[in-house]
Design goal:
The complex is a heterodimer of chains A (139) and B (431).
Chain A lengths: L2 E10 L4 H11 L4 E9 L2 E8 L2 H10 L4 E12 L4 H11 L6 E8 L3 E7 L3 H7 L12
Antiparallel strand pairs in A: 1-3, 1-4, 2-3, 4-6, 5-6
Chain B lengths: L5 H4 L3 H22 L1 H9 L40 E7 L7 E6 H17 L7 E4 L8 H12 L2 E3 L6 H11 L3 E4 L1 H13 L4 H4 L4 E5 L5 H11 L2 E8 L4 E7 L6 E3 L4 E6 L13 E7 L10 E7 L1 E2 L11 E2 L4 E2 L4 E3 L2 E3 L1 H9 L4 E11 L2 E8 L8 H19 L4 E5 L14 E3 L4
Parallel strand pairs in B: 3-4, 3-5, 5-6, 6-7, 18-21, 19-20
Antiparallel strand pairs in B: 1-2, 7-8, 8-9, 9-14, 10-11, 11-12, 12-15, 13-14, 16-17, 18-19
The chains are: A alpha+beta (139), B alpha/beta (431).
């Protein structure tokens, strides 16, 4: 599987929201691999990539959070200057629009992944097939 | 089209007005003679029964407000000796004592007669089975409907409200064809029927429901109709005016007919007290034209609506009012514009992506904040969709009210859950 999953949580812009969410994950011993926050006037969406996506999704839902499970793709990049540029250049050449992005550092100074949400992930992976990119795989 | 009393229901307007005028003169004479409180009110306003020379002269008569019901409480507004009373009904006052309304034998019969018109108007007939899920007690709702249905020859199940399991069992066991129920409870019962996996089309015999006692929106009607596969008729009433059956929808479901041979209908500007032209929104004012024990003259209902004066396709000549838009007490003013919470509610209920709970916060004279919870089930993790949703709500409210609101999207469960009457408007300007 070349697709990965992101957990998206709706949150009003007010103190303590991130704390509440991460507490739930911590108590369930779920490891956060990457996260991002997008916020606009009044509210935002917090996105996580975790080691146990489905568990995290179920748990947050049960706890009353407004949550969704979204597909994304993880593209390997070098953890060095120019690493992000190389990958983003290819995406923009292909006309791929990024809805959200986060970074997952797999091995410090060696290997990192750009986690992006795009329309129609399968098609995007297909179109990037001959670009010599490595995708993050989920079991 | 079925009629209970075709002659009266389709009377030419001029004839209807003649009846109204005769009855108005009679009731004014009666209260002037028999009710000291009314006599004093009229004298203070410089009016005698002889001054009523046309139907239009009613505008010179002082209003009756709910405060008048507490003067000489409880029997002060009786126009007959106490021995003629056979029933008390009350309506909960918001503070202190309830409003006490008394019925003579003739009044009970007449209220049933009016309900019979309403039921037959919607196609109900002998052979139908009415499950009456309103409260039997001091509240008028259940009793008046009960007697009206029996008058038509309808089989009545006096279920009362609550005990949803039993409600559903009654429907299944006895083949209920009609419900009389509040809109909020109807939504709940329908959702339980769904959860139980009961197919209303196959396992129930429901044809129609009469929803009243609380204001509700067109979207709520549609929801109940779709969930239960029935026709829902809007039913308006108030204890001060017999209870249900004051206004009722015909099969065209486009406004509620008011039985004008029994009630004189006016719409006024709640601030100035002046009668507004047909079609304009204002406070509904009713005069009982055919009540024996406790006539009420120009009673201010505090309900907001408008008159629909165009003739109805059903053939009835009695005019219609729009569904109740709210209470005058609920109305608020922003940027000099009168706004009712119901207007906002209608918009939110018709917008995909938001839940039903909302709150309107007023912090200054020209700013309105609408706080609404998003729909947990429709959340898809896309912020651009939420931004669009927010813009959509802002624009819809702006075009409906002429005031551009500030819209806040909230996490579900943030706002207090409404138990009964929800507090929708938080007016910080008055604190």
């Amino acid at each position: 599987m070349d697709k990965v999953h992101l957990i998206s949580v709706f949150a009003e812009n007010k103190p303590g929201r991130l704390e509440k969410i991460t507490k739930v994950l911590a108590e369930a011993n779920i490891n956060i691999l990457a996260f991002s926050i997008t916020s606009t006037n009044g509210f935002g969406i917090i996105k996580f990539m975790v080691d146990r996506s489905k568990d995290a999704y179920q748990l947050l839902k049960e706890k009353g959070f407004t949550v969704s499970l979204n597909e994304a793709i993880g593209i390997e990049m070098k953890d060095q200057p120019g690493g992000l540029y190389e990958v983003v250049k290819i995406l923009s050449e292909e006309g791929i629009n990024i809805q959200s992005a986060a970074v997952y550092v797999a091995e410090t100074r060696k290997r990192a992944y750009l986690i992006v949400e795009v329309d129609n992930p399968e098609k995007v992976i297909e179109s990037l097939k001959d670009k010599k990119l490595n995708f993050l795989k989920t079991s | 089209m079925n009629f209970w009393n075709k002659h009266l229901e389709t009377l030419p307007r001029e004839k209807l007005k003649e009846i109204q005028f005769e009855r108005l003169k009679r009731v004014i004479r009666r209260v002037y003679k028999n009710v000291p409180h009314y006599q004093k009110k009229f004298k203070d306003a410089g009016i005698t029964p002889e001054d009523i020379k046309s139907l239009e002269d009613v505008k010179n008569i002082p209003f009756t407000t709910k405060e008048d019901l507490y003067v000489d409480y409880p029997y002060g507004l009786l126009a007959v000796p106490k021995e003629k009373i056979i029933r008390l009904h009350t309506s909960s006052g918001t503070t202190g004592k309830p409003k006490a309304i008394f019925f003579s034998k003739k009044d009970i019969d007449n209220s049933a007669e009016l309900i019979a018109r309403c039921l037959v108007m919607t196609g109900a007939k002998r052979g139908d089975i009415l499950q009456n899920s309103m409260t039997y007690g001091l509240f008028t709702g259940a009793f008046v409907m009960h007697y009206g249905a029996e008058k038509v020859g309808i089989f009545v199940i006096p279920a009362g409200p609550g005990n949803t399991e039993r409600q559903i069992a009654l429907m299944k066991d006895f083949g209920t064809t009609m419900l009389h129920i509040t809109p909020s409870y109807a939504l709940y019962v329908a959702s339980v029927i769904y959860e139980k996996g009961i197919d209303p089309k196959k396992e129930l015999k429901l044809k129609r429901a009469y929803l009243g006692a609380e204001p509700y929106s067109e979207q709520t009607r549609k929801k109940v109709e779709d969930m239960l596969n029935i026709d829902v008729y809007n039913c308006y009433g108030l204890t001060e005016m017999n209870g249900p059956g004051v206004g009722f929808e015909c099969p065209y479901k486009d406004g509620l007919h008011i039985w004008e041979d029994n009630f004189l209908l006016e719409i006024i500007n709640p601030e100035t007290g002046e009668v507004v032209p047909d079609g304009e929104i204002g406070e509904l004012v009713l005069t009982t034209l055919n009540r024996e024990a406790m006539p009420l003259i120009r009673y201010r209902t505090r309900d907001l609506t408008k008159v629909i004066s165009e003739p109805c396709r059903c053939g009835r000549t009695h005019r219609r009012i729009s569904r109740i838009l709210g209470r005058t007490d609920d109305m608020f003013i922003v940027k000099g514009v009168n706004i009712f919470p119901q207007q906002i509610e209608q918009i939110l209920m018709g917008t995909k992506g938001v839940a039903q709970n909302y709150q309107i916060v007023l912090e200054s004279l020209d700013e309105m904040t609408v706080r609404v919870e998003i729909d947990r089930e429709l959340f898809d993790g896309r912020i651009d969709r939420l931004v669009k949703l927010k813009e959509e709500i802002t624009e819809k409210i702006r075009s409906a009210t002429m005031v551009k609101p500030k819209v806040e999207l909230l996490e579900p469960g943030t706002l207090p859950v409404s138990e009964g009457k929800a507090k929708r408007v938080i007016d910080k300007r008055t604190i």
